[in-house]
Design goal:
- The protein has about 140 residues and is an alpha+beta fold.
- It has one domain (about 5-135): Nuclear Transport Factor 2, Chain: A (Roll), CATH 3.10.450.
- It contains four helices and eight strands, in the order ααββαββββββα.
Length: about 140
């Protein structure tokens, strides 16, 4: 794919996810899609949807700003800054991953999307500083 087309996929993924349009987000995923959260969880598409819904439940005011975007013919790397307040518990499959602390946080991270030949996301990896998040939430 042309790097401009890859950047277009990145924008579609980001827009659909950040506005919680889950069907649109799912339409960007390949059948063998995998998400690596950066904190030890690796998930398929269905599991990622549960993760995403739980994220927005715990942090209903969550917003993101996209920084630099670097695209090749089959992948894109981009920088993000997310901001929210931990007003709810982040619970996944009955396990509290982050309690509701009421604290605001700012999370800087990088995301890598790998695409197949049809422009569908096969791998979604993020790299973040978990210790910084925990400290901001008062959990470190």
């Amino acid at each position: 794919m042309d790097p401009d087309a890859v950047t277009g996929v990145q924008r579609r993924v980001q827009q659909a996810w950040s506005t919680q349009r889950w069907d649109d987000w799912a339409d960007t995923c390949a059948q063998d899609y995998l998400f690596d959260t950066g904190i030890g969880y690796r998930m398929n598409q269905e599991e990622t949807l549960r993760w995403s819904r739980a994220w927005f439940f715990a942090f209903p005011d969550y917003t993101e700003e996209v920084g630099h975007v670097h695209a090749t013919r089959s992948s894109v790397v981009y920088e993000l800054v997310g901001r929210a307040t931990a007003t709810g518990a982040f619970v996944l499959d009955g396990k509290v991953l982050l309690p509701a602390t009421g604290n605001p946080f700012e999370l800087s991270y990088a995301k890598v999307l790998e695409l197949d030949e049809w422009g569908m996301v096969t791998r979604d990896r993020q790299y973040l500083n978990q210790a910084s998040l925990l400290l901001q939430l008062g959990l470190g």
